[in-house]
Amino acid sequence: MVFTQIVVGWDGSPNAEAALRWALARGGDATIALIQVVPGSNESSEYLRATGDLSAARVDLMDRAQQARAEHPGRTITTHTLHGRPDKELGAHLDHDTLVVVGTTAHGRETAWTLGARLAGRRGQGSVAVIPPDWDATRRSTVVVGVDGSAESMAAIRVGSEEAQRSGQSLELVHAWVVPTSWNSAYVEYLGDVELMEEMRRDVLDEAIEYARSIGAEPTGRLERGGPAPVLAELSERASLVVVGSHATGGMARFLLGSVSHDLLLTAAGPVIVVSDVE
């Protein structure tokens, strides 16, 4: 699963700048397409053209692309200005060999349905990277993949393995679990039940490690007691990247990532890739 194209959502904001810097720092020879989405239709943008705001934004986009080409000679960087909804226009580029990258604020969001969450909740083949504005690649050296035994987490392992191999960083597979709240610790069987569940959870992690090794990766494993989203969010503070699978299915459910992926996008301190490319 190799990304041959990276699509970066661009609006001139510091968040978009962080997304572009991450895409460029990621390295490789994938084509980078900077896509600027102007809200509304072509007709509704006549006012922007008349005032010069649209032209100014387009010039800023082209200037930033030219600067990126100068900083990264040999990289193919294109620019496009589209009209419509950012989630719809950027989502149209989701494909198995394309990574869509957007920025997001790290704190103080006014809504849970950020652009990154809406893109990652779309059904279909593709992966979405959400980059906080204050990520720091210099102090991060591990690609972390959240696993749960599902087909989606196997897809996440494929992406995480490729990213770790490309960057020369270590790969860590993490399975987090919690004791069901319905279990009563006063039961005599409680400790035995918890031990049995922990064994079952370790089997899930071992299967993920075996799968990663079968595709050429050399992962380590971590079994954690706790909610998956909080555990992965804490690990994101030191990880260069956290990769998880999307459990969106179809219909209205395409807007529901599943609590782990969604909560992680809202709380992660570092870059996150959500994968929905399930073979």
From TrEMBL:
Q: What is this protein called?
A: Universal stress protein
Please tell me the species this chain comes from: Agromyces aurantiacus
Bilayer-crossing residues are: none
Look up the domain of life of the source.
Answer: Bacteria
Annotated ranges, domain UspA: 4-109, 142-275
* Xref: InterPro entries: Rossmann-like_a/b/a_fold (IPR014729), Universal_stress_UspA (IPR006015), UspA (IPR006016)
What is a single Pfam family found in this protein's UniProt entry? Usp
> What family does the Swiss-Prot or TrEMBL record give for this protein?
Belongs to the universal stress protein A family.
